Amino acid sequence: MLKVNDIMETNVITVTPETEIVQAAKLLLQNHINGVPVIDKSGKLVGILCQSDIISQQKKLPIPSLFSFLDGFIPLTSMKHLEKEVQKIAATTVAQAMTVNPITVRSDNSIEVVAALMVDKNFHTLPVVDDGKLVGIVGKEDVLRTIIPNNGI
Q: Which of 29, 115, 129, 152 is positioned for an S-S bond with 104, CB 3.0–4.6 A?
């Protein structure tokens, strides 16, 4: 049975929270990757930045729907959610756009665990963390290659 360490990329491209969004976008495009782990100065994984996090800057601000009740207005969208949306749209650094505390996998997890996370949670890229240390990254392409006999690509 294949494990994550059989297919993961160990030469991981990373960014820091202080990296400018434009620089991070260039890094994703130049390397043809969907996401990069975000590490702090001590090397600890603090988030992940994916193409969708950057693309969200191009969407319009969702105006919360309201309904009135006893002469008061109640938002149907939480203010916290609205603040997050505004922050992502206006992001200039990775810290403002990244997903914090990302879901990770271990190098000894089976491919089935990774596939389930990718399908069920719509993840494209998962950091691989062993003993609190980033050791690799696995993406949908890595999983897809496992179904091609004899690594035909």
A: 129
Residue 91 pLDDT: 72
Token pair for 4 = 């994550």
The structure tokens listed for 106 are 């271990």
Q: Is the pLDDT of residue 80 over 70?
A: no
The three-class DSSP label of residue 8 is: coil
Contact 15, 125 (CB under 8 A): no
Rounded-to-integer distance, Cα 16 and Cα 24, Å: 9
CATH code of the domain in which 96 resides: 3.10.580.10
And the tokens for 66? 């309201």
The domain tally of the chain equals 1
Radius of gyration of the chain (CA): 18
Mean pLDDT of the 99-116 span: 95
> pTM, whole model, 2 decimals?
0.76
Token readout for 87 is 């922050």
Locate all alpha helices (DSSP H) within 11-67, ordered by sequence.
21-30, 51-55
Query: Who has greater pLDDT, 147 or 73?
Result: 147
